[in-house]
Amino acid sequence: MLYTKILVAVDGSEGSFTALHNGNELARHMGAELTLLYVTNEVALPLYGGVHPGGVASTAVEVRDAEIVEQSHGEEVLNKAIRRVDPEIKTTTAILHGDPPVTICGYADSHNIDLIVIGNRGHSGFKKLFLGSVSQKVVSNAHQPVLVAK
Question: In this protein, which residues make up the domain named UspA (predicted)?
Fold first, then answer.
């Protein structure tokens, strides 16, 4: 199969840069376009006041500040990623906000992506069972082929 539009989900982890390497090579060999996608983490306001674990803000101002930090981190990750892409490849970048598996699959559907390339962080045992895996959820829910880079 010939892929013409490849989406690589990047989050700054080594696994995502391994995925980027694979996506870059596929795009180069197939003459495909490459899209690099970063999905910002969601920051939630708690239902009740008090002390909250990481990832939960206690005020709307903290949510806004956390979103600004996430946006900045996403831009940094995408800048680092774009420098690793063959300059001959037509490449676009995007930063979106939402649940990563849902956002990745939704973007792929709405932009006629032929292949999703994603890294695997390698969680195992209880942590994998409890947290699940973004790559596992993308594989389960995507309408396109998914390459999980290890």
Answer: 3-150
